[in-house]
Design goal:
Blueprint (H helix, E strand, L loop, with lengths): L1 E7 L3 H14 L5 E4 L4 H7 L5 H9 L2 E6 L16 H10 L3 E7 L12 H4 L3 E7 L11 E4 L9 E4 L6 H16 L4 E6 L5 H14 L6 E6 H10 L6 E4 L1 H14 L7 E5 L5 E5 L16 H13 L4 H16 L2 E2 L9 E2 L2 H19 L1
Parallel strand pairs: 1-2, 1-3, 3-12, 5-10, 8-9, 8-10, 13-14
Antiparallel strand pairs: 4-5, 4-11, 6-7, 11-12
Helix pairs in contact: 1-10, 1-12, 6-7, 8-9, 10-11, 11-12
Length: about 375
Amino acid sequence: MKIAVLPGDGIGTEIVDEAVKVLEVLDLKVELEFADVGGMAYDKHGHPLPEATLKLAKEADAILFGAVGDWKYDKLERQFRPEQAILGLRRNLGLFANFRPAICYEQLTHASSLKPELVAGLDILIIRELTGDIYFGQPRGRRAAPDGAFQGAEEAFDTMRYARPEIERIAHVAFQAARKRNRKVTSVDKANVLETFQFWKDVVTEVGQQYADVKLDHMYVDNAAMQLVKSPKSFDVVVTGNMFGDILSDEAAMLTGSIGMLPSASLNAANQGLYEPSHGSAPDIAGKGVANPLATILSAAMMLRFSLNQPAAADRIESAVKDVLSQGLRTADIWSEGTRKVGTREMGDAVVAAITTKTITKS
Ligand code: NAD
């Protein structure tokens, strides 16, 4: 098995280092190959997703990704901006299904901005369609408005579109995921206003007829945003389009206390996947050794489970993360009175130690 490791920019290298340490202690038969991506790849090779990186990503069974981006690249032409590397990987590998679990660990209930009773035991899964919708729809651009009240004025426009097979495949992913959980899917749309999302709702309903054992309900995105903070535990699996998913998954992230805790997976039809923390490159704390590496470590666990068929190894990582939280270790983003503040490396070392201790105890 080969894993392409793409640390990227900002805190990317710091957090990926810790995930690599954890993978290495598991002593799996995996080969790790590193490559440049994002702003640092642009600086070195003139492109955020160099040919060699894309080739490696395509050949690998899975990709472990850190983060890309920095304000200093904001003035570059769009095609050279670091974030284009992620879009390029998604497009080239057909990574259409984005899994964003939002789990509130018992030990971190107080780190959430919501009341503890609302988030204690929270375990929801947001499945976001990742390769369609208004983010990729053509045409798009700037022009003189061809009609309307502002005819002739400069305007910008994008195109929201979804084809039936695109909706069908993400709906199947959601129903199948729900079967392994609490058998409930909430499809989020804006069918009351948008034609694209009336179609989305119709197609998801049709697919749902093949999953009589899974309860399906539909919710408008504005209501979903409200319900996520009002009664987050009422959700199980949420499935939605690219743009709504982008927004709702970050909202769900904050329910759990810190974006530094949240892993994500983006899969294609062959189960090849890109695994990355839900957060960005955090330039404000880069190089300080304070970033929380747990989202990346948990992303590595998702990678072992979904793409590398190593569920036992994934369990060992997840259980080690719970152990270090129970020991009271916290990076600054999840620190609270009475717990011990640690840096990125110390947190990674503690996860490695928790895995090693359990291995020794078992044998
Ligand atoms: P961000 O997620 O990088 O940071 C938001 C806030 O969360 C910051 O205060 C940061 O310090 C904090 N934070 C993030 N990760 C953390 C961690 N592991 N531990 C502790 N604190 C953490 O979002 P942003 O500031 O809006 O964006 C910064 C850069 O990242 C931009 O260039 C943006 O385009 C890019 N970005 C990249 C990705 C990606 O690589 N997938 C995703 C989102 C944003």
